Amino acid sequence: MTPASSTPQPPPFADSAIVELAWNQSAAGMCLVGADGKVSRVNHAFAELVGYAEKTLEGMPLVRLHPAEHEIAMQTVHREVIEADDSAVWLGRETYFINSRGRPIVAHTRNARILSPTGEVVRLITMVDLSDTARSNRRYELINRVESYTALSSTVSNDLNNLLSIILGYTALLRAGSVD
Asked: N or C: which end of the chain has fewer CB within 10 A?
């Protein structure tokens, strides 16, 4: 027996096909961001959540996916993940995103600092939309229902107000005796 065959080789962590399958089939949104702050790759779940095509997101600055009031905080987190070795930065937290139509998204995210095969440090963001959690929790479901009814009643009252303004305007013209 030769020395090479007698020494067992550790199995590889995962076949690249399995990693690719897990990336594509994951229910959690995953996004790789380079040190420059630009998105380098996303999975389908992430793209669907933020409302963009996967190819559109590639090369987009990550700050475009955050509401304006959270951009500076998110840039700071990105810099800390890329530059520092502080494990507290990587803990899961509530993060705010904004989708392509401007709808705010509250998500639970975790950050990981990864060294790519080329030696570049990248940030892996995994995210789960908290509205999915809200749909599974009865209390959050009731809150969402109340918010939906509130939005509906606000829209109806606004439309009614607009109609009443038109009616009152024409009534004032008729009372003044104007033919126009």
From this structure: C
